[in-house]
């Protein structure tokens, strides 16, 4: 019997997390740089292919959901953090507004610039090296829309990053955050948790040739990230009024949307 779409969604979400977070580690790579720009420099060349292959293309649908939630207007000033290879920034730029994509990985940005040029958005989407917790080069209240997808879990100081997002957000600006989470409800929740804790490290090692224990970072980072109610509270404490999150992939992916107070 074929797996239902909900089960496929759960497994795809976690597999994307595996490849996005850990896909290119070489054996003996330092564990302390997991989730950093240095790590993403190593996996940059496989990043897009891994997303498409392991998610059966569903990751783009999740990103389109994030962009739709921003309700972009051509006059908007948009900031996309942890922009990676610029998939979200390109979707945003295609709607007309000026977009600044920021990421700590130079190699990811290099690929992103090629994609931006191919999309004919050189005059609309700008990509820059940077850290979501340190946006001091950006003016207070300079952006109408702010996004970050599958990146905030890798930021050590989540509260600091959210405060920076609020600082650069104009009054009434929209924030959209998309991130993985551990499903806690529904018949598929135990399957997803088992997959994260036991299958992902071994599968990652098989795909890369690295030690399987290096791949525990994905499981640890998802488990350590605040559950949706707690993360929503963090967003609100940073100065955004939020709405209930929207879930994808049987609860494995959450979209949080807030409005700057």
UniProtKB/TrEMBL annotation:
User: What are the binding positions for S-adenosyl-L-methionine in this chain?
Assistant: 85, 103, 131-132, 149
Its record classes its membrane topology as:
Peripheral membrane protein
Biological processes annotated in GO: methylation
Q: What molecular function does GO assign, one term?
A: methyltransferase activity
Tell me what reaction this enzyme catalyses: a 2-methoxy-6-(all-trans-polyprenyl)benzene-1,4-diol + S-adenosyl-L-methionine = a 5-methoxy-2-methyl-3-(all-trans-polyprenyl)benzene-1,4-diol + S-adenosyl-L-homocysteine + H(+)
- Major localization listed first in the record, in broad terms: mitochondrion
Keywords of the record, alphabetical order, are:
Membrane, Methyltransferase, Mitochondrion, Mitochondrion inner membrane, S-adenosyl-L-methionine, Signal, Transferase, Ubiquinone biosynthesis
Q: Where in the cell is it found?
A: Mitochondrion inner membrane
The record, for PROSITE patterns, names: SAM_MT_UBIE (PS51608), UBIE_1 (PS01183)
Its pathway is: Cofactor biosynthesis; ubiquinone biosynthesis
| Assembly, per entry | Component of a multi-subunit COQ enzyme complex.
Q: Which NCBIfam families match?
A: MenG_MenH_UbiE (TIGR01934)
Tell me the function of this protein.
Answer: Methyltransferase required for the conversion of 2-polyprenyl-6-methoxy-1,4-benzoquinol (DDMQH2) to 2-polyprenyl-3-methyl-6-methoxy-1,4-benzoquinol (DMQH2).
Q: Which HAMAP family match?
A: MenG_UbiE_methyltr (MF_01813)
Indicate what this protein is called per its UniProt record.
2-methoxy-6-polyprenyl-1,4-benzoquinol methylase, mitochondrial
């Amino acid at each position: 019997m074929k797996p239902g779409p909900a089960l496929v969604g759960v497994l795809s979400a976690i597999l994307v997390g595996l490849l996005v977070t850990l896909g290119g580690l070489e054996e003996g790579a330092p564990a302390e740089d997991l989730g950093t720009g240095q790590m993403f420099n190593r996996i940059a060349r496989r990043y897009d292919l891994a997303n498409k292959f392991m998610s059966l293309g569903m990751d783009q649908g999740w990103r389109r959901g994030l962009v739709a939630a921003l309700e972009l207007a051509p006059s908007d000033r948009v900031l996309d953090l942890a922009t990676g290879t610029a998939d979200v920034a390109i979707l945003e730029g295609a709607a007309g507004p000026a977009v600044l994509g920021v990421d700590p990985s130079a190699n990811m940005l290099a690929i992103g610039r090629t994609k931006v040029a191919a999309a004919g958005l050189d005059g609309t989407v700008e990509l820059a090296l940077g850290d979501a917790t340190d946006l001091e080069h950006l003016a207070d209240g300079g952006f109408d829309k702010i996004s970050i997808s599958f990146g905030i879990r890798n930021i050590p100081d989540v509260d600091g990053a959210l405060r920076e997002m609020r600082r650069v957000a104009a009054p009434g600006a929209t924030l959209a955050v998309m991130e993985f989470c551990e499903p806690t409800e529904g018949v598929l929740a135990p399957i997803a948790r088992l997959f994260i804790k036991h299958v992902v490290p071994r599968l990652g090692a098989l795909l890369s040739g690295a030690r399987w224990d290096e791949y525990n970072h994905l499981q640890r980072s998802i488990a350590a990230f605040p559950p949706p109610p707690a993360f929503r509270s963090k967003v609100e404490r940073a100065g955004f009024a939020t709405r209930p999150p929207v879930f994808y992939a049987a609860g494995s992916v959450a979209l949080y949307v807030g409005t700057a107070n």
